[in-house]
Design goal:
The complex is a heterodimer. Chain A is an all-alpha fold. Chain A is built from 20 helices and 2 strands. Chain B has 3 helices and no strands. The chains are: A mainly alpha, B mainly alpha.
């Protein structure tokens, strides 16, 4: 009796260990919400520091995941090195976003506790997504992160653009969720299971017996792709993203454009590579067509933008296309390349948006590319950071963005399949198109005279720290990628493809 | 009791889901668009319940509870966003939500 009780107790403890980052994030989120009403307006900023401590503690508690791999809550959550890798990406992005928000919220006069709580809840949802071994758990994680971000997007309540962006994001996000759920229902109907590994074995049995997938399963796969395609912003579901990214407060855009993409791509890897591994030749074409459309739409639309925030939004669409190139490889190397790309992408994207956060000035008035004229002479360090992030997004050697692209294209070429080679060629052409709009900003920064009425404001210490971390990370991934690519490979291995 | 085959439920669910999609695309009032999303979610619930009954398993019914709970949370946030927008705009027509070009 006692023994059984202790065994039960230790199992519960184990479950908590394997959910440690989410527990820490939610705990800090709840603390901030509970304390918020008692804090005077002048002290709200302290809640941001509490949130920062929470995010850093969550990052530290990822150690628990490293030491206790396995499954938790009767297989609902899977803790493997894949989940650990994605957790680190998500939590780093959340930490940087919080650092970038502290002074932004002061400047806009919307310094409030719930902002930070929502960031933490969103990060917890993405953490659950990273470790989900069950489609319904994934759904809960997806909604935790989505619902929090609907509110965050509309956080500049007095700005009409922020309201509109919030509403668009909410309507299209819930629309996509319904598709994702209907897909899960179809999968459940065919297999009677919603656990990813159980779906895998059930579908493999059906394919072995009938020789092909039943129509209902294919329909389910299609619906799941629609739902997740909205969340990772790939064509043809990208229409809402530039509007939402432009209207949202810029630190929120930094978070939205990075962390949810990483977490949702992780879920897509689990669903497509494992659960639907037996239908690889089927979804290959879906991913292929979507990758081509995503890259062209993202890059061509970015060419004509005059607003930096919007340009970066289209650039993030294009980058989702490059990630799909590695995704289409359907190999362990492909999964590793996706993970490495996501790590590099998150750092450079958050970094770029944080520069825009600072340069936007009060009420986000200075967002046009022309407003960056002369930044190179007025604020050389800030301009250098921005140039580094833009060059990394472009894919210049010695930056993380270059190696991300390199590993992605390499993994696709290794498969030695004609259509994948074609895809890599299309991606290379797109990288060249992309060079134009990134370089244009750099040229404006360094070779055009600043307008007379512009007086730059000094970069706040918190933002400077965040920019330093993002820039150092981008250079580290570009110059010394060995360690991270090894970890990414181990993470891809722990996916245990067949 | 078991006279109605599962396919009927599935067809009904597909029709409801399709109606939701059509309404989402063609309706102009934000509240109506919001209701069409709820219709889609209920179509999903119907499919889950039908599959669970056909298999004699309980887990499908459990998912329905999750969907209902999340839909309620979504509704709370969504209506707050609608109110915020209505205060600024005094209109709930999506065609007037046009500051950001698509």
């Amino acid at each position: 009796m006692m023994g059984a009780l202790i065994a039960l107790h230790s199992e519960q403890l184990m479950n908590l260990h394997r959910l440690a980052p989410e527990v820490v994030l939610c705990l800090f989120g709840i603390i901030i919400m509970a304390v918020d009403p008692f804090v005077r307006a002048s002290g709200k900023r302290a809640l941001g520091w509490v949130a920062l401590v929470g995010a850093l503690l969550a990052l530290a508690s990822v150690h628990f995941l490293v030491y206790f791999p396995g499954t938790a809550y009767s297989n609902l959550i899977r803790v493997d090195s894949f989940s650990v890798f994605v957790h680190v990406i998500v939590l780093v992005a959340a930490t940087l976003a919080i650092l970038g928000s502290l002074d932004y919220l002061d400047r806009e006069g919307i310094q409030r506790g719930e902002y930070y709580a929502l960031v933490l809840f969103a990060a917890a949802g993405m953490g659950i997504l990273a470790g989900a071994n069950e489609l319904v758990t994934a759904f809960i994680g997806l909604e935790m992160s989505s619902i929090s971000s609907y509110v965050l997007v509309g956080f500049r309540r007095r700005a009409l653009v922020s309201n509109e962006a919030s509403m668009k994001y909410f309507l299209l996000g819930s629309f996509a969720t319904a598709f994702f759920l209907y897909g899960i229902a179809m999968v459940y109907g065919v297999t009677g299971k919603t656990r990813i590994d159980a779906v895998q074995s059930a579908l493999e049995q059906i394919v072995a017996g009938q020789g092909h997938l039943p129509a209902l399963a294919i329909l389910g796969l299609g619906l799941i792709f629609v739902g997740l395609g909205f969340k990772v912003v790939v064509a043809p579901f990208q229409v809402y993203a530039p509007d939402v990214y432009e209207g949202a407060p810029t630190p929120v855009t930094a978070l939205l454009a990075s962390a949810p993409k990483a977490a949702t791509f992780a879920l897509m890897l689990r669903i497509f590579y494992i659960a639907f591994g037996s239908a690889g030749d089927l979804w290959f074409w879906v991913i292929w067509v979507s990758a081509v459309l995503t890259m062209f739409i993202g890059n061509l639309a970015a060419l004509v933008q005059t607003n930096v925030k919007r340009m970066l939004a289209y650039s993030s669409i294009a980058h989702a296309g490059y990630i799909l190139v590695a995704f289409a490889a359907f190999s362990e190397a492909g999964a590793a390349a996706v993970l490495f790309y996501l790590a590099a992408y998150v750092l450079m994207k958050v970094g770029a948006f944080l520069v825009v956060t600072h340069a936007g000035q009060q009420d986000e008035k200075r967002l046009a590319i022309q407003d960056y004229a002369g930044l190179g002479s007025k604020q050389p360090v800030l301009a250098a950071c921005f140039s580094l992030f833009l060059l990394s997004l472009l894919g210049l050697p010695a930056t993380g963005g270059f190696l991300g692209k390199f590993f992605a294209f390499q993994s696709a070429l290794q498969v030695r399949e004609r259509w994948l080679v074609a895809l890599v060629i299309i991606a290379a052409i797109n990288s060249v198109i992309g060079a134009y709009y990134y370089l244009r900003v750099i040229v404006v920064m360094y070779f055009q005279a600043p307008s007379k009425d512009y007086t730059p404001s000094p970069v706040a210490p918190a933002v400077a720290v965040a920019l330093f971390i993002a820039a150092a990370g981008t250079l580290y991934l570009g110059l010394l990628p060995g360690r991270v690519i090894d970890i990414a490979r181990a993470a891809a291995q722990s996916l245990s493809l067949h | 009791m078991s006279a109605i085959p599962i396919s009927w439920y599935l067809v009904l669910s597909a029709i409801l889901f399709g109606l939701g999609v059509v309404a989402f695309v063609f309706k102009r009032n934000i509240i109506t668009i919001f209701m069409s999303i709820e219709l889609m979610l209920n179509a999903v619930n119907l499919a889950f319940v039908a599959f669970a009954r056909a298999r004699g398993a309980l887990d499908g019914l459990v998912f329905v509870f999750f969907v209902i709970v999340v839909a309620a949370a979504e509704a709370a946030v969504g209506l707050a966003i609608v109110i915020m927008l209505a205060q600024h705009r005094e209109s709930l027509n999506v065609e007037r939500v046009n500051l950001l070009k698509l």
